Amino acid sequence: MSLETAPFVPELASPDELRAWYEILVAVSVDFPSSPVPSYESYVHQLNQSTSFHGLLRRWDAREEGRLLGTANAIFPTDENSGLALISVRVPDRDRRAGVGTRLLRAMLPQIHEHGYRAIAGTVKAGADGERWANALGFQTVLQRSSHHLDITSADPALWQVEPKSGFRLHRWTDTAPEDLVQGFARARNAIADSPAGESSYRHPNWTAERVRQYEAKTREGGQSHRYVVAVDERGGTVAGFTEIAIVPGQWSHCTQEDTAVLPEFRGLGLGLAMKASMMRWLTADLPRLEQVRTTTASENLHMIRVNAQLGYRTDYTLATVESEVGALAARLDSRGPRAT
User: Fold this and answer.
1) 253 located within any domain
2) Would residue 182 count as lying in a domain?
3) What are the angstrom distances between the C-alpha of 44 and each of 6, 12, 25, 111?
4) From CA 283, how far away is CA 253, in angstroms rounded?
5) Could you tell me if 18 and 165 lie in one domain?
6) From the UniProt record, which GO molecular function terms apply (predicted)?
7) Do 160 and 299 belong together in one domain?
8) 289 three-class SS
9) CATH of the domain at 53
10) Average pLDDT score over the chain
11) What is the pLDDT of residue 121?
12) pLDDT one-digit tens code per residue, 27-43
């Protein structure tokens, strides 16, 4: 196979090239049953984003005689994760085991090295081709996360009729935190750092009010809408916890449950369940086309998995976070020769 890899710039791509990238996404989606596939228009909108909240976003593809065989992207984080590049490689089953993914990895490494990143991490399906490929290249599995979905069309709404304990009130907003709550909200966001992280090098952001505003601006720029429910301690006005949902315009049938966290001094009071239940009541009342909510939770986080089950979530599969030092990975690839598979 004569492979060619090259950087891919979506805004310079032809409609046929964009369609080919979308078809790769559709082809690899069979590995993730029950996970909805975004519409072509929504996917292209996201593809044209050159940055994420974490940092710069760059893309590559692999072709043989013009036919697209695989795609890849790398995020170059700043701040807490400035030494950890986050990558994704997609190769459909029909073109696997022929060196496509490894060639894409080789194509990314020079830029990762030039940016000064010491480690590289990605997420693959545990026990499947992606994890076997990564482990064969020397990546170590450092964290496992369980993927769950809530099927709104078959779930019992009675599961979402949960109110917070006396002394707490729930507050909702879309996209922009109220000025009187943003400081407390930032503190509550930092509680996610207590969640199980295995041996992963990834570090959660150090949230401040300023960083919350930056995140809000970045999500709006990317075309997303985020909804929040927080629990407020009525005795002192402390934001005791929060939960977050991300909605991508054009993907009206499904959304993503993002972080949920409660400050240590308020844990064990059922606030996580109450906030997430309130979010489900809000979503189903407001978004009649919504059919599914998806989320991932560290497999060690048995408490949150139980909370999700109480709301009607079902477990689909396990995801593995894999990591390698950049220098060690480059050396291993060099030892395999120019056509590593």
Assistant:
1) yes
2) yes
3) 19, 12, 11, 24
4) 11
5) no
6) acyltransferase activity
7) yes
8) coil
9) 3.40.630.30
10) 94
11) 97
12) 999 999 888 898 999 89
Determine phi and psi for 119, rounding to 5 degrees. -135, 160
Query: Can you tell me the distance from the alpha carbon of 64 to that of 7, in angstroms, rounded to the nearest whole number?
Result: 15
Please give the tally of structural domains in the chain: 2
Three-state secondary structure call for residue 288: coil
**Residue 241 token pair:** 């916890």
93: which 2 tokens?
A: 């089953």
At residue 220, the 3 state secondary structure works out as: helix
- Distance from CA of residue 315 to its chain's centroid? 17
From the list 32, 26, 29, 28, the residue with the least C-alpha distance to 316 is 32
Taking 50 as the threshold, does the pLDDT of residue 341 lie above it? no
pLDDT tens for each residue of 279-331: 999 999 999 999 999 999 999 999 999 999 999 999 999 999 999 999 999 99
Kindly report the length of the chain: 341
DSSP codes, 97-161: TSSHHHHHHHHHHHHHHHTT--EEEEEEETTSHHHHHHHHTT-EEEEEEEEEEEETTTS-GGGG-
CA distances from 14 to 9, 17, 19, 44 (A): 10, 5, 9, 12
Question: Would 73 be classed as within a structural domain?
Answer: yes
Residue 338's pLDDT band (boundaries 50, 70, 90)?
low
Residue corresponding to tokens 């894999």:
322
The verdict on 206 and 271 lying in the same domain is yes
Range of the domain at 173: 156-311
Q: Are 87 and 77 in contact (CB under 8 A)?
A: no
Strands 254-262 and 239-247: antiparallel
In a domain, 161, yes or no: yes
